[in-house]
Task: inverse folding
């Protein structure tokens, strides 16, 4: 039996909150959600957590505390909760405990769940045992030999069996599901708020411009650096093309609905994608022990057929990372047919069809009510540039990183100032160290400087912005490696 003591700051979070929330928890809320460390395997968890400690600048006592909370506490450990030097409660970690980031808690959000706390005064009836634990506890420490620990070792097992302290598996699951539901609702609200900041009034003007272009051209590629809102914007654009009314509250749910009913298709190009995956190809199957080959339609052919069978509704194909695939090879003979004036049903122009090789040469055309939206990462140098055949058939629209979107996402002036300074520092760093690309093609997108509930700007720097800038350096895009210390970086590059 291992006994540990956990210290609480009653000015921040009281024992009563742990009691009512069924959790063992620690403070320092600015650290945000630490599930990235807890859910990893033991060795990599420790490495990830150590890296986080070395690059984050908060209370020096926190690293050891969180290491114990996330790694050292195990099933059947006994936990004594202290406020100052007063023992407030006792619990035992159950077999089925989980790590959970509890948004309900004011400050102690990183939690082990679920536990049943017992108030110390209800457990300890020996008048010779003081309710005072001696020196106050900070963080989590192993309990040493004392009258208190001896009393716990002697009496806890009988007490918990008599009073049913350990949460049973079914009860554990019920409480966990309830907490997950509550957390999911809050997370969805947080996601909606985040997308709303990305799709503000300025972006609405941009979206209308894109829609006007694609209605004429039929095919468009949204290009830009990571985090400029390419993937997010496609959802709003797709719904507008289809003509579905939406607002910031129901955009994502409507987008999912249209994907489920086949009016929107989503595919990610990669270097192994080919014509057989995208248009049609022979796929093996086993019938009565014999291998046979049948023609199987790809995502592009399927959505074209749906669009032709419905000449009243618009359909949208979203191709993410379009430049990571060999587009000419993937589209094959259909590359010419995607042009607006070659579409089936176009009012002006000359519709064309092609004979598909696997479908007994049946003629195939692309309907006018199908719109293609591609996204392209302008910083990705692992693939070749898009060839002229594609550039002739797609309109290109660059989404630029926008500091005003960052600033408008913060209510607190200090947070706004910090984020704005970091934005300018990153832009100046790229401007001074870039080698052969435009700043707009490289500038880290505004979403990298905006954080959701449970995050902070330091985390965004450590785990999003800094790794991207470091890759720029390693890939030879920038001539200098960035400072790891965010504040030194800001001081160096803010002018």
Result:
């Amino acid at each position: 039996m291992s006994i540990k003591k956990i210290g609480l700051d009653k000015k921040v979070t009281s024992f009563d909150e742990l009691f009512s929330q069924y959790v063992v928890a620690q403070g320092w809320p600015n650290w945000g959600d630490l599930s990235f460390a807890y859910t990893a395997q033991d060795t990599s968890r420790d490495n990830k957590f150590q890296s986080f400690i070395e690059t984050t600048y908060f209370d020096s006592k926190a690293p050891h505390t969180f290491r114990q909370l996330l790694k050292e506490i195990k099933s059947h450990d006994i936990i004594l909760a202290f406020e100052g030097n007063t023992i407030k409660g006792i619990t035992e970690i159950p077999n089925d405990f989980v790590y959970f980031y509890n948004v309900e808690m004011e400050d102690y959000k990183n939690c082990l769940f679920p536990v049943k706390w017992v108030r110390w005064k209800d457990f300890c009836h020996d008048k010779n045992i003081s309710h005072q634990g001696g020196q106050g506890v900070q963080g989590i420490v192993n309990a040493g030999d004392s009258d208190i620990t001896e009393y716990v070792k002697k009496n806890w097992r009988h007490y918990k069996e008599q009073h049913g302290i350990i949460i049973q598996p079914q009860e554990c699951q019920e409480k966990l599901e309830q907490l997950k539901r509550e957390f999911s609702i809050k997370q969805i609200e947080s996601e909606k708020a985040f997308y709303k900041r990305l799709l503000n009034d300025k972006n609405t003007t941009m979206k209308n411009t894109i829609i006007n272009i694609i209605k004429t051209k039929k095919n468009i590629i949204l290009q830009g650096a990571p985090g400029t809102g390419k993937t997010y914007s496609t959802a709003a654009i797709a719904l507008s093309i289809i003509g579905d009314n939406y607002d910031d509250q129901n955009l994502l749910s409507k987008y999912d609905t249209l994907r489920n009913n086949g009016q929107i298709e989503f595919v990610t190009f990669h270097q192994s994608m080919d014509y057989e995956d995208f248009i049609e190809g022979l796929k093996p199957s086993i019938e009565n022990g014999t291998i046979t080959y049948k023609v199987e339609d790809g995502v592009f052919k399927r959505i074209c057929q749906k669009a032709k069978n419905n000449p009243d509704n618009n359909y949208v194909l979203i191709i993410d990372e379009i430049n990571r695939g060999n587009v000419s090879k993937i589209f094959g003979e259909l590359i010419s047919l995607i042009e607006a004036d070659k579409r089936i049903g176009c009012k002006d122009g000359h519709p064309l069809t092609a004979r598909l090789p696997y479908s007994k040469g049946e003629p195939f055309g692309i309907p006018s009510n199908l719109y293609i939206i591609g996204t392209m990462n302008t910083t990705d140098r692992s693939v070749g540039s898009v060839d002229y055949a594609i550039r002739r058939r797609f309109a290109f629209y660059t989404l630029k990183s926008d500091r005003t979107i960052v600033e408008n996402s913060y209510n607190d002036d200090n947070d706004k100032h910090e984020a704005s300074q970091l934005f300018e520092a990153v832009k100046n760093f790229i401007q001074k160290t870039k080698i052969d690309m435009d700043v707009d093609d490289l500038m880290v997108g505004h979403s990298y400087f905006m954080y959701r509930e449970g995050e902070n700007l330091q985390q965004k720097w450590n785990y999003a912005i800094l790794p991207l800038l470091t890759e720029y350096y390693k890939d030879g895009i920038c001539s200098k490696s960035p400072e790891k210390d965010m504040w030194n970086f800001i001081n160096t590059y803010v002018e």
Remarks:
- The longest strand covers residues 280-287.
- The two ends are 58 Å apart (CA to CA).
